[in-house]
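Input for the complex:
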Amino acid sequence: MRIGILGAGVVGSSVAELAEEYGHTVTAIADSKSATTDANGIDVEAVLERKKNDGVVGDEPSDSAIDASYDALIEATPITIGDAEPAFSHVKGALERDCHVVLGNKGPMAQRYRDVRALEAESDGEIRFEATVGGPMPVLSTISDLGPDHVTRVRGVFNSLANFILSRMTAEGLGYEHVLAEAQDLGVAEVDPTFDVEGTDAALTCSILANVLTQSEREFTIDDVHVEGIKEIPGSALDLAKDDGRTVRLIGEISEDDVRVAPRLVSENSALAVSGARTVIQLETEHAGQTHVTGAGATGHEIATAILVDVTRLEAP
Amino acid sequence: MRIGILGAGVVGSSVAELAEEYGHTVTAIADSKSATTDANGIDVEAVLERKKNDGVVGDEPSDSAIDASYDALIEATPITIGDAEPAFSHVKGALERDCHVVLGNKGPMAQRYRDVRALEAESDGEIRFEATVGGPMPVLSTISDLGPDHVTRVRGVFNSLANFILSRMTAEGLGYEHVLAEAQDLGVAEVDPTFDVEGTDAALTCSILANVLTQSEREFTIDDVHVEGIKEIPGSALDLAKDDGRTVRLIGEISEDDVRVAPRLVSENSALAVSGARTVIQLETEHAGQTHVTGAGATGHEIATAILVDVTRLEAP
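Predicted:
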């Protein structure tokens, strides 16, 4: 399949790098400033080299990638909160041209679910977004196999940085600021970790899951998620929990009554008590009990793999 | 879809019970002695009631179910070692009639993989067997999504009873015989637990996974799996492991060089160190890192759900 890639950060670059291995051809790639397009396939290696050295992916204007020739558009630009722009317009453009869209960006399905589904209904193209929920973990595919109707509750640790910080605070008895600085030194945390530690990233995941589970009966946006982050948790609370055989995790939960992200006490033996930069998603079903999927905090290659698997699914009859 | 069910034990009965909820009609059901068939749908409740009270599912001979009218045959008779009969003949009969087959029975894909695939190639029917690997856990679907070529290694705890016994031995410092008797009292273990504790059940799972991963390049049967069970593990070995921050689990492993089931030392913090009657499967991929899927020891309803999800997949275009 011929793919166009919007976004040349860690995820977009990894998609470009791995595309050939999954049998796909990259015909366009853009970052915020520039683009390269070639209907016969761009020279990925040269483009990524140039990105590294000069900070641009080509000589064309960024917009030319959207209008290029491809079967599927990969949306991997940075997440924005609110109207999910410009990602939403990228999705719209591709679907209106009857092209498929695969999302790496959580914004459109977390904040404009109905609008995207409406565009998809009018298009010969399809939209896929497995990578936006748990990265490489098979979450949406499992929900789709079980049937969303049969999934009664989803809980999970959706953000690996928040989990890394809470695990370290618990294990070492260290304070929040100290562990955060350590995470930044290790490259686990961005310079601005707000998005992760305030629960915004987990809330976006919850919103997507709520939309998928209710099958558009009701639309969820990030504003419908009750969010509480981990910055205010005192070390003493973690010590108290530990004495009681429990621990604190930033848990996202989607049930019939409520969509919520908050620090919660869980038993140390619970499947939700993963440690380090890990994530876990628990699916509770009517008849199939609980299934857990866990993964390591996803790197660019891992998210790219989830995206390319989605592209491959589109090719299937 | 109209389904015929062979086997009216815990799994077969659960499939019958839940079929309607997944939009399917049961047109035949058989145990080893009897059958009921009705092209318009049998009265499931009455049949299961009769099975409970009289030990039979109907007045017809057992074989009449195989010849009945259905779109998909569910094979849920007890596993046999060796030529996987009579399950293999059931699969053959259905595929030769161009019907689909969904397996609850591990035998055919663990022991006669190529024969089954050859029959499928000649048939308009398809074969599905997600329930035979980890029950309700999405393992085969994830391997298929990732592409078997991209999965470099699979390891896991495939048998929940063996894991229950090892966990209890470790946690309580009790001996094998003591914990086994306890498991039998709790109904977690069968009267004859040989199949589970000697590693045979896990070996069947390994053989299926090896066949799926090599995509028929080479055929695996249970004879190709190196198997060592848990009966000979002394309590002292578990204590020694514990002092070292490790624990012992019955691990199945499928890698390029080897297919093996054996007690192995794993770190207490490892994702493979699940405790109690749980199972876990670790998929190691070239680019997507490690993904783990865990589940509780599967009940009849859980395995039935996996089977019915497979049936539903068959309906999709």
